[in-house]
Design a protein that fits this description.
Chain B: This is Xanthine dehydrogenase YagS FAD-binding subunit. The complex is a heterotrimer of chains A (213), B (326) and C (736). Chain B has 326 residues and is α+β, with helices and mostly antiparallel strands. In chain B, 30% of the residues lie in helices and 21% in strands. The chains are: A alpha+beta (213), B alpha+beta (326), C alpha+beta (736).
């Protein structure tokens, strides 16, 4: 899953991380923040302290989302889902459970469908992420998006981005050879409105290439 | 979730060294279980060592054995053509687990290290000896539909939730690990442990050893195998009971057999005594039934999970029947 | 079929591209993040609450609890339920009434910092003994002190006991939780004393009243936006404490506050279908004529609110029986208040009634459908009124044919497919057709578009699409030219979305407003020189052009009509209501679910090999979205029948499976083969379109259909939902 990059890049990255660590150790702030409430009082009472603290708690992240390169600073604990929704305002990717139990947050990372809620953004250095917003070209929809509309593969629409990202991957992976196989390989995406019948119709239609509407 | 420091390891040696020194440091790979546990405040590491850059993703077919890198993804193994051919039981078990998205993320090593799904373990307001030693076991006398019928203790009746591990336990796999003191090998069936008085320990890893690979010795279990998973819905649910059955049948006689159960104990439950019983016998439902009854020796229920005492043996018969008729 | 009867969902593009904006997704400058910290006991008082660590944590702006809350002025009016809100006043005092009741709120600058800070809050309690187990507390039942809570009797009370063939059984359903995919969420902000909320509400106007009541301001001062809802299934029928908390926080900080519940909190804080114990008594003659029917229910409610639903109501009218008694009681437990969940009480009641009917048919050795037909109600004996329309028999026929009912044998366990035991079952559903006063504004713009406005929202059934179809049909416009503005305050007042009443209420209002608009346009058109001497009846309006029916070369475009009258647009705002005529009839939708199950008794595995859902819902406005709703209702019923149950550890009064891994809802693999059939005949009375409502009845009757099919396959009668595998598992017997 790791992005392709040269060993040299990796070393540089690791070195910069290492030097950051040294800095953190020298400043003592990181440890203090993590462990000692008195420092937190300081951090809270002095606005500048808190801002520095906030910055020191982040790591640099270079990530490509829907073809756009982003150079960001993120907290190590920030999930890819929260990064997309709260920082990049790409709210098409949905939070349904936040624990890997519903599939609403499904996105493609380096071409593979994964759950963004269980993915730490800080571990996605140089990754290529595709979200629902990255599928269509303006008004020109991806065939799977067309098929979901035509076959009414949704009602409330909240699980839909995850279903569509999953459905595209399902075909690409070669797991859409029968309705039964589609049902199994789409079972990681819960639809509480119960549109499963139509979701399978939509994926079957795209798989068979029949996109006339 | 508490914030933490994250560093990326570039070699297994540096990974092991960087983690050994720190008390609250952990490895992270797929993150499918660890991130979840961190969100629930069940674990709160100060430091994560990202091991995803390590060269431990290969599936290799060596003389006499198959080696699967600890960082190979669950889906990568499940869909590997040679694995499907040589170890179909493993592929079936992997495919029965979680969802495709999670299988794309989860690694073989991480799958082995996943924690129990016991609700009392997950809910930090509840007593749980596994999470907080000596805090009590909520599941005993509580809600225990998912829980163990074998090898449990007064401290813990949780089960190991993996499907993959049930197949690996059946297939006599070994676990290769690397620690500060060097490398060693652990028999898969010795890797996970029973709870006893120390349910906080899931396995026999020491000093934050790193799992580097899993090895499966060559075998003849390529045809008459079945992984049966019984659960509360058709997919994307943990096993109530699962059975990994592998038979080597010649002229309707069982030459060799491997049998293990999931969802019934703190570890994948290998049934060696039952295997011995079956060896040399002619395939028949009666024999399978006798085997299943033998398998239940020592089983006990805790109330909600009493049905597993019926389901368990039925599942064994079913799995053996399906495997033998392939 | 009209050209609009199968149009695609009008919000489809927004939903498949991720551009549909749900409540917490509105980009709001300066927004900060809030979350609720819940109590860890089920009953008692907060002895102390330590918020210091959280307050000191990086990025935290404020921690609010009962100790420092600025109480909204409406809190003083203690017992005012504001008809949409609920009596639990968040952070009011130190009382804990249920597990995970909000005791504090943390607001911080980022999501991650807020989450972490919340984990630092610790409280100590003075515990009191809680009761969360209805089975143990059912003796503490009481009557609901409203007319609806009264017992019902027709004919001889409990006459079933005197019958030749008697069935007396108890049925239970567990607590089930709505769990829409979208978490309950809100962005709250204040402009002076006027709040604005983007929230997950099924009723914009109700939320305005409720918030207005809590904060002592007129509802008109409250702006509510609920344009997109990621499902709700009833949980959006209340204004919940989390919404008030966000408003309190926003007011305190004078900043927009975003609050999203965790999935775990969706199980504890925003209602559920209540655990209900039902007793059925059915009596029949030997040839299968019902002579007595008694239906009693005991359901849970919270300690602070009496909640009831129509659990026993269906038994009063669905069959032709002269002697019917119903009784409904509640028991106060230490939980959050229940709230109607799709199908609501009728789904609960139909599980008991339709299971009992199946059991009695079995006792009589009759085909369950023949038994029902024999007791078919030609009129509504409860209200003593004729049905406005009833095509229940057509539903039976349609389903029997599609499911292959002829392959069913009365004797359980007598049909096999390979190793699988085969069973067929059916269950009847019904739901009343309601119509609320609704205001719709219809506007024709010079660009040729028709704008329809109403504050009603669309939680998924396709309300906007239905409005579009009706608007396009009446005005003769292509559906692409209809623009819907809905789901927020400030628009003409629409109803709450619920009770299957939206199409009847809003659709009728669209129908009426559009007709008035067309009349207005034609009225102006006859004044023009083109149509000189013609009457309105001589003119037709379609696709934005008025044309003479006699001479289609004579036409006037809307644009020229507008400019001639010096108008920017033509508009009509109109309130539509139910007619007096409708009161003379009993108006119900009917559904029948059929299932074919395959059962492996060794593993307890139940497969739904085929599900057929038939319904008489009057006119089907849009085949596509209606079918979607029916599929979905059936799937909801499948969850109810086979897997959904909130499990409580009563020692702690806490849920055990409050997450999506352990609280099972159906996944794609559970739904093997599904079909939908609508009778699609216009109801002459219900409303101008002749619709009767679908959303609820789409679920009602599915759970008993499954239970009946499982019985037919295995001979095992499961009377406590859900039908999990342990309930039908058989010790394996070796084949001889």
């Amino acid at each position: 899953m790791a992005a392709k990059k040269s060993t040299k890049d990796k070393l540089i990255e690791d070195e910069s991380n290492a030097s950051r660590r040294d800095f953190l150790k020298k400043s003592g702030l990181f440890t203090a923040l993590a462990l000692a409430p008195p420092s937190l009082v300081m951090a809270s009472e002095n606005k500048w302290d808190e801002k520095i603290a906030g910055y020191l708690e982040t790591v640099p992240l270079s990530i490509e989302v829907n073809g756009v390169k982003q150079n960001l600073n993120v907290e190590p604990r920030t999930t890819l889902l929260d990064l997309l929704r709260e920082q990049l305002h790409l709210t098409g990717t949905k939070k349904g459970c936040d624990h890997g139990q519903c599939g609403a947050c499904t996105v493609h990372v380096n071409g593979t469908r994964i759950l963004s809620c269980l993915t730490l953004a800080s571990m996605q250095q140089n990754a290529q992420v595709t979200t629902i917003e990255g599928l269509s070209k303006g008004k020109k929809l991806h065939p799977m998006q067309e098929a979901f509309i035509k076959n009414d593969g949704f009602q409330c629409g909240y699980c839909t981005p995850g279903q569509i990202m999953s459905g595209i991957a399902c075909i690409k992976e070669g797991h859409a050879n029968s309705r039964e196989e589609i049902r199994e390989y789409m079972s990681g995406n819960i639809c509480r409105c119960g549109a499963y019948h139509n979701i399978v119709d939509a994926i079957t239609e795209v798989k068979e290439g029949g996109m006339s509407s | 979730m508490k914030n933490f420091q994250i560093i990326r390891a570039l070699s297994s040696k540096s990974a092991v060294i960087s983690i050994a020194k720190e008390k609250e440091a952990m490895f992270i790979a797929g993150g499918t279980n660890l991130v979840d546990l961190m969100k629930k405040n069940v674990v709160a590491p100060d430091k994560l060592v990202d091991i995803t850059a390590l060269d431990l993703k290969k599936i290799e077919f060596l003389t006499g054995k198959t080696s699967i890198g600890a960082l190979a993804k669950n889906s990568q193994v499940a869909e590997d053509k040679a694995i499907i051919e040589k170890h179909p039981l493993l592929a079936m078990a992997l495919t029965a687990g979680a969802s495709q998205q999670i299988r794309h993320m989860a690694t073989v090593g991480g799958n082995m290290l996943q924690r129990t799904r016991c609700s009392y373990f997950y809910n930090t307001d509840m007593p749980c000896n596994k999470r907080v030693p000596k805090s009590g076991c909520g599941a005993i006398g509580g809600s225990n539909r998912m829980h163990a019928i074998f090898g449990a203790s007064d401290s813990c009746i949780a089960v190991h939730p993996s499907d993959m591990c049930v197949a690996l336990a059946a297939l006599d796999a070994t676990v290769q690990v690397e620690g500060p003191k060097g490398k060693r090998e652990i028999k898969f069936t010795d890797f996970h442990r029973l709870p006893g008085n120390t349910p906080e320990k899931d396995n026999t890893l020491q000093n934050k050893e790193l799992i580097t690979s899993v090895e499966i010795p060559n075998n003849n279990f390529t045809k008459n195998v079945h992984y049966l998973k019984v659960r509360d819905r058709s997919s994307y649910a943990f096993a109530l009971v699962s059975v990994a059955a592998a038979l080597d049948i010649q002229n309707n006689t069982i030459n060799d057999v491997r049998l293990a159960m999931g969802g019934v104990a703190h570890k994948p439950w290998r049934l060696t005594e039952v295997e011995e019983f079956l060896k040399g016998k002619t395939v028949s439902e009666t024999i399978f039934r006798q085997a299943a009854d033998l398998a239940m020796k020592g089983a006990r229920g805790y109330g909600d999970n009493d049905f597993k005492l019926t389901l368990g043996p039925n599942a064994i018969v079913e799995a053996l029947t399906i495997a033998s008729s392939k | 079929m009209s050209k609009t009867s199968n149009i695609n969902r009008v919000d489809g593009f927004a939903k498949v591209t991720g551009s549909a904006t749900y409540s917490a997704e509105y980009k709001t400058d300066g927004v900060v993040y809030a979350c609720l910290v819940g109590s860890t006991i089920a009953k008692g008082r907060i002895k102390s609450i330590d918020t210091k660590k959280a307050e000191w944590a990086p990025g935290v702006l404020v921690v609010i609890s009962h100790l420092n809350v600025d109480k909204p002025s409406g809190y003083a009016k203690a017992k005012d339920p504001h008809n949409f809100g609920q009596p639990l006043q968040v952070f009011k005092d130190d009382t804990v009434l249920y597990y995970d009741q909000p005791i504090a709120m943390v607001i911080a600058d980022t999501f991650e910092r807020m989450q972490y800070a919340a984990s630092l809050i610790k409280a100590e309690y003075i515990k009191e003994e809680h009761i969360t187990d209805l089975q143990k507390a059912k003796d503490k039942e009481k009557k609901v002190e409203t007319d609806k809570g009264d017992d019902y009797h027709r004919g001889v009370q409990d006459n079933y006991k005197n019958a030749a063939v008697v069935l007396e059984e108890e049925y239970t359903i567990p607590t089930e939780v709505h769990n829409p995919m979208e978490l309950a969420n809100i962005i709250a902000k204040w402009d002076g004393n006027k709040p604005t909320v983007y929230t997950k509400s099924q009723g914009v106007e109700g939320t305005r009243r409720s918030i207005g009541g809590v904060f002592g301001i007129p509802p008109e001062d409250v702006s509510v936006n609920s344009e997109y809802l990621g499902g709700a299934f009833g949980m959006g029928l209340h204004t919940w404490p989390y919404e008030i908390a966000a408003l309190i926080g926003s007011k305190k900080l004078n900043r927009p506050v975003k609050l999203v519940l965790h999935r775990e909190q969706m199980f504890t804080n925003v209602g559920f279908r209540p655990y209900t114990i039902q007793k059925m008594g059915l009596g029949a003659t030997k040839d299968g004529k019902l002579t007595g029917l008694t239906h009693e229910a005991v359901a849970m409610t919270s300690s602070y609110e009496d909640f009831m639903e129509g659990t026993v109501n269906m038994s009063r009218f669905i069959y032709n029986c002269d002697n019917v008694s119903t009784r409904y009681r509640i028991v106060k437990l230490d939980t959050c208040t229940p709230i109607w969940m799709r199908g609501p009480g009728e789904a609960t009641g139909s599980f008991a009634l339709e299971s009992a009917m199946d059991e009695l048919a079995h006792k009589l050795d009759m085909d369950p459908i023949e038994f029902r037909k024999l007791n078919y109600a030609e009129k509504d004996l409860e209200q003593n009124k004729p049905w406005s329309s009833k095509y229940l028999l057509e539903c039976y026929e349609g389903g029997m044919e599609r499911i292959g009912w002829k392959n069913r044998k009365n004797k359980p366990g007598s049909v096999k497919e390979g190793e699988w035991l085969v069973g067929y079952g059916m269950g009847t559903g019904t739901f009343g057709c309601y119509r609320s006063p609704t205001s719709v504004k219809a506007k024709f713009l010079a660009d040729g578009n028709l704008v329809l406005q109403c504050s009603v929202n669309d939680m998924g059934p396709g309300t906007a699409t239905m409005m579009t179809a009706i608007g396009a049909e009446i005005t003769g416009l292509p559906s692409e030219n209809v623009v819907i503005e809905m789901g927020k305050s400030g628009l003409p007042k629409g109803p709450t979305q619920g009770g299957s009443a939206t199409t009847s209420s809003v659709g009728s209002a669209v129908h009426d407003a559009c007709n008035l608009l067309v009349s207005k346009i034609l009225g102006l058109a006859v004044e023009t020189s083109t149509f000189k001497g013609m009457a309105i009846t001589d003119l037709a309006f379609a696709n934005g052009v008025v044309t003479s029916k006699k001479d289609n070369l004579k036409s006037v475009s809307l644009a020229s009509l507008l400019s001639a009258n010096k108008l920017e647009n033509f508009e009509v705002e109109n309130v539509s209501k139910a007619t007096e005529e409708a009161k003379k009839y009993s108006i119900y939708s009917f559904s029948v679910h059929f299932v074919k199950v395959l059962v492996n008794p060794n593993l307890g595995k139940i497969r739904l090999a085929h599900v057929v859902s038939c319904a008489d819902i009057g006119t089907v406005i849009n085949q596509k979205t209606s079918a979607g709703q029916m599929y979905g209702g059936a799937v909801g019923g499948i969850g109810m029948g086979l897997m959904e149950a909130l499990e409580i550890d009563h020692r702690f009064g806490r849920p055990i499976n409050n997450n999506f891994a352990d609280y099972h809802v159906p996944v794609n693999a559970d739904i093997e083969k599904q079909e939908v059939f609508f009778v699609n005949k216009k109801d002459p009375i219900s409303n101008p379109m002749g619709t009767k409502g679908l959303g609820e009845t789409a679920l009602v009757g599915m759970a008993p259909a499954i239970a009946n099919a499982v019985f037919n396959a295995t001979g095992k009668r499961v009377r406590d939902l859900p039908i999990t595998l342990d309930k039908i598992l058989e010790p394996r017997v070796a084949n001889a």
